[in-house]
Protein: Membrane dipeptidase
Amino acid sequence: MKIADGHCDYLYQKSRKQPTVISYSTLKQSRVNIQNFALFASKQGGSIESSEKILQEYQKQIQIFKDDFINRTDCVFIKSKNDFDNNSVLHVLLSLEGCDILAYSSDFFDQLWNLGARIFGLTWNHDNAFATCCHTKKNTGLTFKGIEFMHKLSKNHAIVDVSHLSEQSFWDIIALNESQPTIIASHSNSKTVCNHVRNLSDGQIKAIISSGGVIGINYVPEFLNEEKEKATMDDVIRHIDTIIKHGGENVVALGSDFDGAALIKELNSPHSLQILSYRLNKEFGDKIANKVMFENWKNFLLDRLP
Structure:
């Protein structure tokens, strides 16, 4: 069964010369056909000068992206729906996890867009000039600058990743209505199953389903089970099942967070994904298993990319 994965931090880890579980050969052997790669910097820009340094770090990560993946003849860099090639072994996408630097110059957005970034997560784990994050101590959500940025993303047919946003920021995006850009949660789970600020409430899940987005389930223990040391693949199944029961059969997908966090042992590398495929087939049947493992991401990207 082909696999699509909505989030990994390979580029950041590789740029720091840290060991990674992802590689071209690993993805190929594991039958991963679509992989989203995040650009990430742990220290975000607080000024135009520091933001320029962060942009240089992103450019370094993009060079790794080119060298390790998109320069290969059987790998396709997806920047629009027309880039999909059914004969390709691997399709790769580029996203931004934390848009802090984009608040200081519109040129930064244009540069990253021209380099191929199509998915934008407004915040990581701290508030910024655009929005509050899931760990915020504030009662606010999108800022005025954040609303303006949403209009820009919508105009460009960009995709907004809500995974690290506060719930108020999330609902502020939903309230934009016609100006609302396409939204996804690339690596988020169900708050009903596991009560953690990084997870989505039932209302948020239903809103993403209504908007035609995608929710990628991750394998981080503390997001799977409130007793994180007890987290297993069974919890992954429970999160998937909960979203399906909300009507999300065509929405729930994978968002591993490979190379971004310590994951449960059963799903700590792409090699383990075929085991998850087997479990999903056993629990839900082949049709739904294929949707979760691959089709939901593929269909979403074909429908919503520029």
